[in-house]
Specification:
The complex is a heterodimer.
Chain A lengths: L2 H5 L10 E7 L7 E7 L2 E8 L4 E6 L1 E2 L4 E2 L5 E5 L2 E5 L6 E3 L15 E2 L1 E4 L2 E6 L1
Antiparallel strand pairs in A: 1-12, 2-3, 3-4, 4-10, 5-6, 7-8, 8-9, 11-12
Chain B lengths: L1 E6 L3 H13 L5 E7 L14 H4 L2 H4 L4 H6 L2 E5 L3 E5 L4 E4 L4 E3 L2 E4 L3 E3 L12 E3 L3 H11 L4 E5 L3 H12 L3 E5 L12 H13 L3 E3 L4 E5 L6 E4 L4 E3 L3 E3 L3 E3 L2 H5 L10 E3 L10 E3 L4 E3 L7 H15 L14 E5 L2 E7 L9 E7 L4 E7 L6 E7 L5 H9 L10 H4 L19 E3 L4 E2 H9 L6 H8 L9 H11 L19 H10 L5 H8 L8 H13 L12 H4 L3 E2 L5 E3 L10 H13 L3 E4 L5 E6 L4 H10 L12 E6 L13 H12 L8 E6 L13 E5 L4 E5 L11 E7 L1 H18 L6 H7 L3 H9 L7 H13 L4 H7 L1 H5 L16 E4 L2 E4 L8
Parallel strand pairs in B: 1-2, 1-7, 2-3, 7-19, 9-16, 10-11, 10-16, 11-12, 18-20, 32-33, 33-34
Antiparallel strand pairs in B: 4-5, 5-6, 8-17, 13-14, 14-15, 21-22, 22-25, 23-24, 24-25, 26-27, 28-29, 29-31, 30-31, 34-35, 35-36, 37-38
Helix pairs in contact in B: 1-9, 12-14, 15-17, 20-26, 22-25
Classes of the chains: A mainly beta, B alpha/beta.
Bound molecules: siroheme, flavin-adenine dinucleotide, iron/sulfur cluster and FE2/S2 (inorganic) cluster (FES).
The site of iron/sulfur cluster has 13 residues of chain B, from loops.
């Protein structure tokens, strides 16, 4: 099992202790993601501009343990906003981290806030 | 009054009781049943459902009370250990004995356990009874990984079960194929990718040498020296008939075991019958229920004195019962019949593989294979079994009649006598009358009243078809719309984008779609936009498929490959040196591709712009290996050097590749030019190919290698280069306009009404009078060509997209390579640790 996976833990907004300033809004493509490094932990941040919502998840795809999700494609299934992994197109809910088209383990998700042009990810 | 004893209370033993009581009551024939298992007969076929509902009752064929009502004496938990044929009585393990007039052996089979060292270890199981499942469930709670030995019908079902028990599951198959008895190689490959997509790992060509571990297993060793870490093993390598009783009272056994019977299912003792999996009929053992039920029928007929019915063998058609993985195999699936002609269809994109085998005279359907789409299974099975006439273009059997509609005229053509449900032997007539006469309208009711589809369930789709057909509610649309977000076909969207001058995905989605798009429609629209406007695709990078998004093919582990264009395969020593230097500098694995050029693998995302800067400065351009676009135009050396060459095939290949480079299309495009009919460039295996003739070129189109090789067809003969290019412009543009997403030209042509003749009408004779327009569109695309990579490396903003981290310039630390023959390769999926 991959060390990274073990250290990924969903963080809820109320539990946030550190708001980590990751990068700036202008770094981002529209409806796309970027990967940031937080003390060795790779986090994927997504700018869902169609809905003007931000999400963050682990960057590691649980399927084949690939550090890749930030390069995934955004979309929706019904109302559910999702990201599709570039490798085998497993899709995950950006809200809950749930694997929508398989039984892969779910993604850890993290709160994101945007303040005057900077993007922050919350860690516990 | 006759006295009948049934040994074995399994599915067939039970079915025998049911069928017998339908014809004779206790005053005529008394029945005593001995069952070894503690439970009354249960539905083994649906054993796996026990994992979800954990309910024995749900699985029972009938509750104990039923046996009482039917005046059947049921003695469960009783193993019959001996038969005295002279005294005509049986004895059980408790010493009890019981006499009979007729004896029915329905002892079924047990799982075959190969003699592998260590099979006796803790953690090794079989998959046959409810007890087995209880043990598996218990043990699974204590472990993380579980493997299944055997990639057959049952093994795959078992593997899915392990996965549902939250184990990470592997399937180990000795053969090079999954379901070797039912599938051919292509079918197996398609199934493999589907199973793997479920998250189940598949190891083929693995011969297990030893099951290792002290006490309980922790590792499997294979004869090829490799090993597999696993904590649990479910053996599913086939069945052996339970014929123990044969020896003691010398009843004959078949070559591969089982009670040897004649067509009346009598053993060599005329008063002893055998049915079900315990039987060897003409040395054939039937591991399916339907044949067993048929046997039960036959024996009942013997006992009530009908003596008309005989068992003459049975059909082995089967369907895999894995949710989400449709697999069907019927009749002569592998085409073993002398002179049989296979027709196959494969759609990697949709994950569908279909194959039918025609008789040598092309008049009858012998059998076939369906993977990924079984909706026509029952229909094709019917056509095979009833020897029904097949359509004029037999490929309609698997491609569906042009313009939709179901295969072979559809269920309408089925005779009322056609057997729809083979498990319960229900005919089409019975179902139709249930609907017409008893006014039944929904499937559930039909199942309960006719029993159709209550067996293995394989016929359910057809039952519902008959239902709908009978209810005259034929209204199925055949429009292939893009996905949930766009209710339009690709061709419709092509016109919309062109006419309404739509330039971006969001524009189109807002005006003509719904939701936020998905991984299906985004790349498809991206391809359309590129085919129509040919704008720099990185301007909308997040709708591009992953390879397009980074202008490189992503590899295992997350590195990328770099393929510069080498038109016609011609390259100068200086350029070769540059490739060598670049590959060396950035530590890239280099390989000559099958497309006459050089692929450099293992590039880090952050390095891609630097690598391409150097290549572009040396005069290279993108090879679009990552795009559904023109790949290569393969050339042979041709008349410049070759003693046979008729024209300069290299120069012409370079001209054509340079003309269409960067052209994006529904699927990738490959071309070839050969200098003479020896065809060293394999032009007839390409989407378009030119073969030199004395006076010009023969132009072939819609060839394909890869998954479904198909020879290109002659579009025009002896044309000069100028005409060839004119036809090519039209042909390619027409394909780009009208094909479905991810259909190669070959697939596109196969679906085209009128086939190559119609295509010739359009391209050569311009019957639609769009020739000029197509040429104009093509010219516009050629004029707007730009090297995507040059633009990317010249543009700071675009360059910044090629970084792994947004908040640092580091490479991805989790990238891992292992050495291989003085170069490198990515670490295996599972070797990766970070
Ligand atoms: C590199 C190469 C193998 C090699 O080392 O020779 C290759 C590699 C890949 N092929 Fe291929 N194909 C390569 C020549 C071929 C050929 C031979 C040829 O072109 O003459 C074929 C059969 C001919 C044909 O296409 O008709 C071929 C049939 C396929 C197919 C099946 C296409 C089909 O219609 O069935 C796929 C899957 C697909 O495209 O959907 C595929 C897909 C792929 C992909 C792109 C899969 C992927 O998405 O990662 C592989 C990645 C390449 C990479 O990472 O750079 N590749 N592939 C060859 C690159 C040729 C080039 O210079 O561009
Ligand atoms: C998981 C699984 C999935 C399957 N899926 C399918 C499918 O999809 N389609 C299909 O057609 N078939 C399927 N099969 C095969 C099908 O279940 C068998 O063909 C069918 O059960 C055979 O019935 P039978 O009565 O001959 O044997 P069994 O069902 O094995 O019954 C034999 C019974 O006799 C008992 N017995 C044996 N010896 C003695 C004795 N000396 N004294 C007393 N009792 C004895 C045994 O304990 C057993 O209970 C599947 C089987 C399994 C295990
Ligand atoms: S195709 Fe003809 S010209 Fe080309 S290499 Fe072969 S033999 Fe020579
Ligand atoms: S690695 Fe993400 S889907 Fe396979």
């Amino acid at each position: 099992m991959n060390q990274q996976t073990l250290s990924y833990q969903t963080v809820n907004t109320e539990d946030v202790k550190i708001w980590f300033e990751a990068c700036t809004v202008t770094d981002f493509p529209s409806d796309g993601g970027l990967c940031i490094n937080y003390e060795g932990l790779q986090i994927a941040i997504f700018n869902f501009s169609r809905r003007n919502v931000w999400y963050a998840t682990q960057n590691l795809c649980p399927h084949k343990k690939q550090m890749i999700l930030s390069r995934g494609m955004l979309g929706s299934e019904g109302e559910e906003p999702k990201v599709a992994c570039p490798f085998h197109k497993k899709t995950f809910s950006l809200e809950s981290g749930k694997n929508l088209n398989g039984d892969e383990c779910d993604l850890a998700t993290y709160p994101v806030k945007v303040e005057n042009g900077s993007v922050y990810v919350g860690f516990a | 009054m006759k006295k009948v004893i049934v040994i074995g209370n399994g599915m067939v033993g039970y079915k025998f009781c049911e069928k017998l009581r339908a014809k004779a009551d206790a005053s005529q024939i008394s029945v005593t049943v001995f069952g070894e298992e503690p439970l009354p007969a249960y539905d083994r076929v649906h054993l796996s459902e026990y994992f979800e509902n954990k309910s024995e009752d749900k699985l029972l064929m009938a509750p104990r009370s039923w046996y009482e009502e039917q005046n059947i004496t049921l003695k469960t938990g009783q193993l019959v250990t001996g038969i005295d044929r002279i005294g005509k009585h049986v004895t059980t393990h408790t010493g009890a004995s019981e006499s009979y007039d007729y004896l029915i052996l329905a002892t079924g089979s047990s799982a075959m356990v190969p003699p592998i060292k260590g099979v006796d270890k803790k953690g090794v199981f079989v998959y046959r009874t409810i007890e087995d499942l209880d043990q598996i469930i218990e043990y699974a709670k204590t472990v993380k990984r579980g493997a299944v030995l055997g990639g057959g019908l049952l093994g795959l079902e078992a593997a899915k079960a392990l996965m549902d028990l939250n184990l990470d599951a592997q399937v180990i198959e000795f053969a090079p194929k999954l379901m070797p008895r039912q599938l051919d190689e292509a079918g197996s490959n398609m199934l493999k990718s589907k199973i793997e997509a479920l998250g189940i790992e598949i190891l083929m060509n693995k011969n297990t040498k030893e099951i290792c571990g002290n006490g309980k297993l922790d590792r499997l060793e294979f004869t090829d020296g490799t090993t597999l870490e696993t904590e649990m093993l479910v053996i599913s390598c086939g069945i052996v008939s339970r014929d123990e009783l044969a020896k003691s009272c010398n009843l004959d056994r078949g070559a591969r075991g089982g009670f040897k019977v004649n067509d009346r299912l009598q053993t060599n003792d005329p008063d002893i019958y055998a049915i079900g999996e315990a039987v060897s009929h003409n040395d054939m053992i039937y591991g399916l229920v339907a044949p067993g039920y048929d046997m039960a029928d036959t024996v009942v007929d013997q006992l009530i004195g009908g003596k008309t019915k005989q068992f003459t063998g049975a059909d082995m058609s089967t369907k895999l019962k894995l949710i989400g993985v449709d697999v069907g195999s019927f009749g002569d699936a592998l085409g073993l019949t002398e002179g049989s002609i296979p027709i196959a269809f494969e759609d990697k994109n949709a994950g569908v593989y279909k194959r039918v085998n025609l008789s040598a005279d092309k008049k009858k359907l012998l059998g076939g294979i369906l993977v990924g789409d079984c909706k026509d299974y029952s229909m094709l099975l019917q056509i095979t079994q009833n020897g029904m006439a097949i359509p004029p273009n037999p490929e309609d059997l698997i491609l569906g009649a042009r313009g939709g509609g179901s295969v072979g005229g559809g269920i309408g053509d089925l005779p009322d006598t056609a057997q729809i449900c083979s498990c319960e032997n229900v005919t089409k007539g019975a179902i139709v009358s249930a609907i017409k006469d008893d006014g039944i309208t929904d499937l559930k009711e039909i199942r309960t009243c006719t029993k159709a589809g209550t067996g293995c369930g394989a016929c359910s789709p057809m039952v519902s078809d008959i239902c709908t057909a009978t209810l005259k509610s034929m209204g199925q649309t055949v429009r292939k719309t893009l996905c949930a977000h766009f209710d339009y076909t690709r061709q419709e969207l092509y016109s919309i984008i062109k006419v309404k001058e739509v330039k971006s995905f969001n524009e189109l989605l807002n005006a003509y779609g719904s939701g936020d798009g998905c991984e299906t429609c985004k790349p498809a629209i991206a391809s359309l936009l590129a085919s129509i406007w040919n704008d720099q695709i990185l301007k909308q990078d997040t709708i591009q498929d992953t390879n397009d998004r980074f202008l490189a093919n992503i590899q295992k582990g997350g590195s990328y490959s770099v393929v510069p264009r080498i038109p016609g395969g011609e390259i100068t020593p200086d350029k070769l040196i540059v490739i060598g230097q670049v590959a060396k500098k950035y530590d890239l694995y280099t390989k000559i591709t099958g497309g006459q050029r050089i692929d450099m693998f293992g590039a880090k995302l952050n390095d891609l712009p630097k690598i391409w800067r150097e290549l572009i400065d040396a005069g290279f351009e993108s090879g679009h290996a990552y795009g559904k676009a023109l790949r290569t135009v393969k050339s042979c050396v041709g008349s410049t050097w070759c003693r046979y060459g008729l024209h300069d095939s290299v120069s012409f290949a370079i001209e054509i590749e340079s003309r269409y480079k960067g052209l994006r299309s529904p699927h990738k495009l490959k071309g070839g030019v050969s200098g003479c009919r020896r065809e060293c460039a394999e032009a007839q295996g390409k989407d378009f190919g030119l073969i030199a003739t004395e006076i010009g070129y023969n132009l072939y189109v819609c060839g394909n290698g890869g998954a479904n090789p198909q020879h290109a067809k002659l579009l025009a003969g002896d044309v000069d280069e100028k005409t060839a290019i004119k036809y090519l412009d039209r042909f390619l543009m027409f394909y780009i306009r009208t094909a479905e997403p991810l259909n190669r030209t070959s697939v596109w042509l196969n679906k085209m009404e009128g086939g190559i003749d119609y295509l010739r009408e359009v391209v050569v004779n311009d019957c639609l009078e769009i020739g000029e327009e197509l040429e104009k569109d093509m010219q516009a695309l050629i004029n707007s060509y730009h090297c995507e990579w040059k633009e990317a490396v010249d543009n700071e903003d675009m360059k910044r997209k090629f970084r792994h981290f947004a908040n640092s310039d580091e490479d991805d630390p989790s990238l891992q390579f292992v050495p291989m023959r003085e170069m490198k390769k990515p670490a295996e999926w599972d070797e990766v640790k970070s």
